[in-house]
Amino acid sequence: MGISSWFHDKIIDPLLLVIRGGADPKLLASSAALGFTIGVFPICGVTVFLCGIAIALLGSFCHAPTVLLANFIATPIELSLVIPFLRCGEVITGGPHFPLTSDALKKVLTGKASQEVLLSVAHALLGWLAASPFILGTLYVVLLPCFRILLRKFRSPPLSPTEEPLQPL
Predict the structure, then answer these.
(1) How many angstroms separate the Cα of 163 from the Cα of each of 18, 25, 158, 160?
(2) 3-state secondary structure of 24
(3) What secondary structure letter does DSSP report for 9?
(4) How far is residue 39's CA from residue 47's CA, in Å, rounded to a whole number?
(5) Which residues cross the membrane (predicted)?
(6) Taking all residues of the chain, what is their mean pLDDT, rounded to a whole number?
(7) Cβ(43)–Cβ(125) under 8 Å?
């Protein structure tokens, strides 16, 4: 049981459902890249909402289950990228370095560092905004051949010779 069972239930089974759905590998790769890129957005708790907006805006140009699955997979990585995005934003703007010390944490918790915190959030957002086209493009290039291989290997054969593969909603 444990983590292996969780990984199988939460990642492998949904991925196989997506692959067996018959979607185009380009659509799956772009949707997964989009979901992952949004999934590492540096403000925790808003990525699902942002994915919903992207799905609504893109409509048939994205595969909603793949976007949401990639967003879910990106969640643990999201926290690890907040500091690099923050530092990237600081470099871009030439802004002050936000100290990540216990004293800074005390200031944040007591409400004495509100301006510095807002500035650091803005820097993290700017860092993500600068990095996101590279994340999106790199993931698409890496995931496209992966999805082509996975589709060839795991796609369900049609039930009859005239049956069309399922199209994304």
Answers:
(1) 18, 19, 6, 5
(2) coil
(3) I
(4) 5
(5) 33-59, 66-86, 125-151
(6) 86
(7) yes
